[in-house]
Design a protein that fits this description.
single chain, 208 residues, mainly alpha, 10 helices
Length: 208
């Protein structure tokens, strides 16, 4: 019985991860489509900024449209799924919404501060793609945390091979702060504080 419960939990966790990935793929496709429409329209008017998603686009809007198209059957299906999974499907949708919101915030940050990517000698698309992949594992991850983890791994990785971006992101996903994660990876409290302060200053300079 315990084995069956464990297997069921693993399956539900996998479903949540798939939901997050699907929402991120939809968000990416929507952004690309919006960019194409913006170029075709010549960029005029007072709508959303170029490259941004059109107003009303998001996880919630897609759910509403599915309900309209199916005369409420989609709502009933989601309700049944929520009941059968003791609310876990609702938790999966919330994770997907969080990931989608964080990805949109990252897009805005990259548009406003292009040097965030340039100063790390990567292009904005690669930085965004890496963050998008990280959100599939930890939808609560903020873009600033991902950038900080990337810079810390670059600054410290040569002398501390176990300090990698993946290791830092794993610590954040576990609920630890960046400073605590660095200590868990072998740095002293003072060195972790100093390294974090240096990266904070680097990020601030990139945003000027």
């Amino acid at each position: 019985m315990e084995e069956k419960r464990t297997m069921g939990h693993k399956i539900l966790t996998a479903i949540e991860a798939i939901l997050v990935l699907l929402v991120l793929v939809i968000a990416t496709g929507t952004t690309v489509a919006a960019q194409g429409r913006g170029r075709g329209a010549g960029g005029g008017g007072g709508g959303a900024s170029p490259g941004g998603p059109p107003s009303g686009v998001g996880v919630g809007r897609g759910i509403g449209r599915s309900s309209d198209a199916s005369a409420g059957r989609a709502d009933a299906g989601r309700g049944n799924a929520s009941d059968r999974s003791n609310g876990r499907s609702d938790a999966g949708l919330e994770r997907a919404r969080m990931a989608s919101d964080n990805l949109k915030a990252a897009d805005n940050d990259l548009r406003k501060h292009p040097n965030l990517a340039n100063d790390m000698h990567v292009n904005a698309n690669d930085l965004r793609a890496g963050y998008q992949a990280a959100l599939a594992v930890n939808p609560n991850l903020k873009f600033g945390q991902y950038v900080a983890a990337t810079r810390l791994a670059h600054n410290l990785g040569r002398t501390n091979p176990n300090i990698t971006r993946a290791a830092i992101l794993a610590g954040l996903a576990n609920g630890d702060s960046i400073g605590k994660t660095l200590q868990n990876l072998g740095l002293s409290k003072d060195r972790a504080k100093s390294a974090t302060k240096r990266v904070d200053e680097e990020i601030k300079r990139s945003k000027r």
